Amino acid sequence: MKLPTLAVLLSLPACAAPTLMPLPATMTSGSGRLEINQTFRLALSGPSDEPRVHASALRLIARLAAQTGMPLDRSFAPDPTTATLVVSWTSDGMPVQTLGEDESYRLTADATQARIQAQTALGALRGMETFLQLVEADSQGFKIDGVTIDDHPRFAWRGLMIDSSRHFMPFAVILRNLDGMAALKLNVFHWHLSDDQGFRVESKRFPKLHEMGSDGLYYTQEQIRRVIAYARERGIRVVPEFDMPGHSLSWLVGYPELATSPGPFEIGRHWGGFEALIDPSKEIVYRFLDSFLGEMAGLFPDEYFHIGGDEVNDKEWRANPLIQDFIKTHSLDGSRGLQAYFNKRVQTILARYGKRVEGWDEVLNPDLPRNIVIQSWRGQKSLAEAARLGFQGILSNGYYLDLMHPASRHYEVDPLAGDAASLSDAEKARILGGEACMWTEYVSPETVDSRIWPRLAAIAERFWSPAEVTNVADMYRRLDVMSRRLDSLGLRHNSDYGEMLRRIAGPAPVEPLRALADATEPGKGYLRDEHRYTQQTPLNRLVDASRPESAEAREFAALVERIVATRGESDLAEARRSLEAWKANDAVLQPLLTQSFLAVEDAALSAQLASVASTGLEALRALETHRARPKDWVEENSAALEKMRKTRAELTVPIIPAVEQLVAASGERVGAPEHGARTKKKKKKS
Amino acid sequence: MKLPTLAVLLSLPACAAPTLMPLPATMTSGSGRLEINQTFRLALSGPSDEPRVHASALRLIARLAAQTGMPLDRSFAPDPTTATLVVSWTSDGMPVQTLGEDESYRLTADATQARIQAQTALGALRGMETFLQLVEADSQGFKIDGVTIDDHPRFAWRGLMIDSSRHFMPFAVILRNLDGMAALKLNVFHWHLSDDQGFRVESKRFPKLHEMGSDGLYYTQEQIRRVIAYARERGIRVVPEFDMPGHSLSWLVGYPELATSPGPFEIGRHWGGFEALIDPSKEIVYRFLDSFLGEMAGLFPDEYFHIGGDEVNDKEWRANPLIQDFIKTHSLDGSRGLQAYFNKRVQTILARYGKRVEGWDEVLNPDLPRNIVIQSWRGQKSLAEAARLGFQGILSNGYYLDLMHPASRHYEVDPLAGDAASLSDAEKARILGGEACMWTEYVSPETVDSRIWPRLAAIAERFWSPAEVTNVADMYRRLDVMSRRLDSLGLRHNSDYGEMLRRIAGPAPVEPLRALADATEPGKGYLRDEHRYTQQTPLNRLVDASRPESAEAREFAALVERIVATRGESDLAEARRSLEAWKANDAVLQPLLTQSFLAVEDAALSAQLASVASTGLEALRALETHRARPKDWVEENSAALEKMRKTRAELTVPIIPAVEQLVAASGERVGAPEHGARTKKKKKKS
Q: Would you tell me how many other CB atoms lie within 10 Å of the CB of residue A668?
């Protein structure tokens, strides 16, 4: 059994405000306390029995029952005056959800009733998510405190991209992530459906695409339709991406005639670029695309259609005399001009099917029509450039979830900051929002939820809430609550962690391994690209189980901040306890690691954590005894810690920066703390 | 972070044998080590492409991939000689799985291959479950050690009954529990589909049954067919129960003409008996049943059909002059004779539809045909009596999961023990096996998994394994492993525990509440019947979250056993740590309990745990210092502990018996332990 320390208990807000995420545009406390008990009834009041509102309201009742553990009447109240919650909306909205459709709502609650008023069905959906977050228990029962919320999104395009090509993500994974997205008021699911490593959609016109390009791992058209309907019910648009003319090896397995080189081709198994690509100089390519895109345009109702266009390796184009002739004949600007030509042809086809084109930075070309949307993976500079040229755009640079950065880092990225800050208002208006990207080279169906959640919630708040909402500590407080709420929606970021650690531990007890895992993080950035991975490589190591962001390390860093500032006794004691536990864990863990082949590689990492903790303890001793360490010692240990930043088994020890701070502080000559210093210390979570 | 104590680490077997549950009939270690890696391929070899074996083999590959975290080739090996696992069977088996169908299999493994050989497809399924349990990690990789297993079930009828009437259990709940059953080689799902509180099956012939008798909570016929197909693929028969002539209030809401009294009727909302019941003297009843049972006989393919027949309250029959005339006219033996008359008529109808009747003890009547199966909720005596009369029977008394007894208690109940032990061999052969019963008065979809699992695994072993398999400590060791494996199958007994505790804690941190919950258990037996519960009462209190069996209390009891026997120093220290933690928890928890209305009621329980722990610490002190407590002290404290056995908020403190043992021991004058006593101590888990 484990008891929370007093510090944990003290860090809790005495009287918690409701934990909302994303934070609404404005919120004012009202009076009264609306009891949420078994008399709860919901009434709908709109121009029609709009199916999305109807379905969402039924889900609200079911989720409220699950959240409170109370059986609830599942029928709607016939009379709004007697209902606990009235959901009203003025217009049912578009048959296909469109970009920029009104999502605003007003939510008011007093002692007798809660009311959601929205312009559109979509706004009603957003308000219902807020309602569920407002329900909390106190000593009397479940309740909502009197409140007025006026809310609307800051950006119209708030997306998540999931790459279903590198690793196929089963139907159920997609559905549960749509539930998570809806809870965070995200409104675009960008589905990366083809790439070198797999073509994931059933095509009835060109069945060799999925038959030969997917290893049997693809979505049937019926499943696609179900995903789209599921998303629509949650106020989410589905934008498909078929990446071309590069990243298209999986197409060429079944249809080598589309390729620049003669083939034959096999599905890509490793990561990084392949040279094979579509040949834009062949008319057959456009006949094929006309038919194929026509089929897909019918399957995916959204107005936007993503054609990829990123990272075209033009080596084969340059080596191909026919293509070089074509470039000359058409007076194109080399390979770049050839891709622009291709994009224009594709854009023309899609326009005929009523679609607007979206593409990655590389599709940007002044010759293209201005209704193309640019998705920037390169950065705010490239996005600002597009806006200046008159293109609309969304930001994805800074929101790559696969790079394992902390939520705070993504949270600080603003689509309208950086180069975009200097744009005119008209240009700024072209920046529609952003999209988090979940590339899946190193992500399996088992690990995908833990790479998306809970960090995506912080990004979702950046896209929805006012720009001024930037308090990182408060964001983390709410993120912890959201993480648990997402459990209840069926997301597996927390549950799979334990199961994976047990597998890695093998016959050994799991707790010491968990202690190590809790204090480590996967290496950041594109580190894993240095290794020899393929699509078949098992993702069952500690680096796969380990969370992108260690809560323990984050809390330890905050503790060290306080120690450096005030040298509080209880903080010093808490830091000592943590460091001693990390140090002691290694001795317990080492013999256990030898019992499982999946754990053997973690020996050096465990030793590294112990070594970092030892250094931390030595520095702490200096602070506790007010005896500064000599300069040599500080330099030596700082250098040693610097070296220990190196990954082991692709994992890092994220307490190193905080321990470096302790080491630096231990070299400073500081007297005993003034009397009263402890009362000045900041709260751990403010 | 939490470190395991050295005691926990020492208690682990140095070289673990594979953790099988249920234990097979015979198992012999062989030589060699079969590597299970990404080259794994499975080959099938049977008289046809039997759909169950085919589907189960595909699931085996998917589950092996999930278990190991390794992508595996999902196609079957064309050539058995190159396969890692060959599954062969001689006969495809019956189109509808029958009672007593051969389930035996032989599983052999050596360094090059594993082979499952079975007479029937069913045996192949059982062998595949064993195969998955054999795969374990060691320092080299995943592997199976050389082994020969010859296995067959002890009993032909190994069931679980789920009551879907008192609380409706959604489709998904049923499916995941079928997965759990299959993992434990259970073969009968007995589905209690109607009772006073709800009629749960769509009837096309009598739609008012489900329309008026279910609050809209029923299974469509399509869902029923899917459950049956899902069960068949897992080697599980589905036996439906429609309880009559008592427990039938929900039928009468839509069809009051079947009733003994005039009606109108409403669905039963509270628990315990209702007086309304079917009138066996009306011919209309048999015309109705003929048509209704004909429809259900077509829906449920199993040969057996359960007609309930339990707990008939004959008050209305006795008060009804027409019925009393009927009894006289037909020379029936009062109400008992009337029920036998009814059963015979129903049996005749069902026989015409090719069904054999099953019923609870009360249907037993010498006048009925001997092909009826008696399910005994009353006990072994009643079962033995039935067997002597020539009826087949199964035991459920002793296997009621809703009574919250420990797994060990169920494990010790043997269908062939007690009164059955004195039966002749021919009579014993009539005892077909047993069924665990999950009645759901106090069980919701959220809590049902935690009431079934993992305890059902112990009962499943009783039904499958040889009678000599009775080592309780070893059962618990394997039960812990099975519990985690069941997590991976999607069962929620572990995951819902945390979610419920967080809800109860409300705005307060959950850890201290969890510490309390870990050390408490729901009251045993029919205790909750004393309170005013209805179908609508929320089941969201600590008594609902709390596990039927506290692992902490069980481990503490084992520790105290050792202390009483040997007074080992490290055992004393460990007991002190546990008792101190329990005692200290109360002070932390009390202020937190006031923050949530769902937790307020647990204040007395927390205080009680602290008080028990205090007494334990005082007793421990006497043992540590070798100074016996005076007799008065022992008596006083024993009496106080006895009083504390009383439930608080319907929960008990299960460490009381162990603390009572400590108190008793503290009164005995014992010298310091002999030198070497510590080395004599039994291992915690042997």
A: 12
